[in-house]
Structures are given as structure tokens and as C-alpha cells.
Amino acid sequence: ISDQAKHIAYRKKDRDALRHAIIDDLRNQDYDAALVLVDDMAEMYGYREEAEEFREQILDAQAHHNQKLISAALKKIDNICERYDWDAASHEVDRLQRLFPNHPDLHALPSRIDQARTDHKRDIERQFLHAAETGNVDQAIELLKELDKYLTPAEAERYQETARGVIGQKRENLGVRFKLSIHDRDWIEAVAVGEQLIREFPNTKMADEVREMLDVLRERAAGQRAAESGRTA
Are 179 and 173 in contact (CB under 8 A)? Predict the structure, then answer.
């Protein structure tokens, strides 16, 4: 067999091997490796028409695969935003943009998350003001704690007077509950309310007064529990 015939035979084998390698990479979703082999098919072996057919097939498969990944990631980001975990959402966006820097669906994501965060902040503000206005002190306190995560120092100034009023009302309410439980000789309730008062308002005169009484109240609460257990036995 002549050298030319050998060259033709080996060239055909190389072409078949290249085809199989491209198909394997495509099947394994290794699109970048497949595109490198397509370039070899066109430049080294001259099969440009077949190479372009492969290239189109690979790019279509890659686009479809990437779109599935992006759709799943966008759904994940929406779920994270529903938990109000804005840092985690931003990290996921950064990861996506590194993987797919030119994908048009990702360009507006940072502003979309910022808007969701702003909307949530405004919703908390509305709920807090409504709770404060209607005297729902416990709800207002919880909302104030949540709102504190979002407000800048300048923004917080707008709510200082309302916050002081709500906090003062909460302290007074606890004081009234504590005194009523003492009056009713409900020592278990007195201990629970007293401990809450100390925990939430540790540096107040009221908290100091409760601390002085707490050991005696705990002894009486233990006796109350024992008596209640005896009645139910």
C-alpha cells in the first residue's frame, strides 16, 4: 500500500475518532472541550462544513443547558429572598454572574434584589407604625427589632420618639403585670414576668426592685407548683 493510501486511511480513522470524541463530550455536557475538538476538525483536518454543523449543535445544547441552570438558580434566589436573607441572595447573584457574565437575564438581578429589600423594609415600617398607633405593643416591639436591621442612623432618627413610646409602654405593661401577679399571689407568673422585665430592661429601677424580690418569689413559685401537682395527683 502506498504512503498516500496510508495517509488517506489514517486521515479517515482520525476523522472518525474526532467525531466520536466530539459526540462523547457533547453527551457528557463538556461543551468547551467539544468546541476545541470542532476547531481541530476545521483547522487541522479541513472538515469545515461538518465542523460548523457540530458547532451549531454544541452551542444549542450548551445554551439549553445553561438556561436550565440559570432558571434553577433564579428560583433559588427567589426562595432566598422570601426568607429575607439578602446577603445570601447577593452571593448567589455574584456566583451566577461569574459563571455567565454575559447572560442578559442576570444583568438586572442586583437591582431586583435591592428593590425587594426596600419593599420589605417599607412593609415593616408600615406594620410598625400601625402597631404603635393601635397600641399593639408586643407586635410593635418585635417589628422594631426587625426594622433596626434595615435603618441607617439617619433613618432611625425618624422613629426615635415612636420607639421610645412603644418601649416605655412595654416596660409599663410588664410592671403592671408583675404587680397584678403579686397581688393575685400567682408566684409562677410573677417569676416569669419578673425575669422578662430584667431581661428586656436590665438597667431600670424597676428591674433592680424585681431582682431584690426574685429569690423569695422563686421559692413561693416552687411551693405553688408543688401544691398544684398535689391537687392533680
Answer: no
Task: Dump pLDDT digits (tens) for 79-102.
Answer: 999 999 999 999 999 999 998 888
Average pLDDT over the chain reads: 89
Task: Kindly report the pTM of this predicted structure.
Answer: 0.66
- CA distance to 180, 188, 213, 223, 225, per residue, from 219 (Å): 18, 10, 10, 6, 10
Residue pair 170/200 in contact by the 8 Å Cβ criterion: yes
DSSP of 126-181, one letter per residue? Answer: HHHHHHHHTT-HHHHHHHHHHHTTT--HHHHHTTHHHHHHHHHHHHHHHHHHHHHH
pLDDT per residue as tens digits for the range 45-72:
788 898 999 999 999 999 999 899 999 9
Q: For residues 113 and 77, is the Cβ–Cβ distance under 8 A?
A: yes
Q: Which residue intervals of 28-108 are DSSP H helices?
A: 31-43, 48-82, 86-99
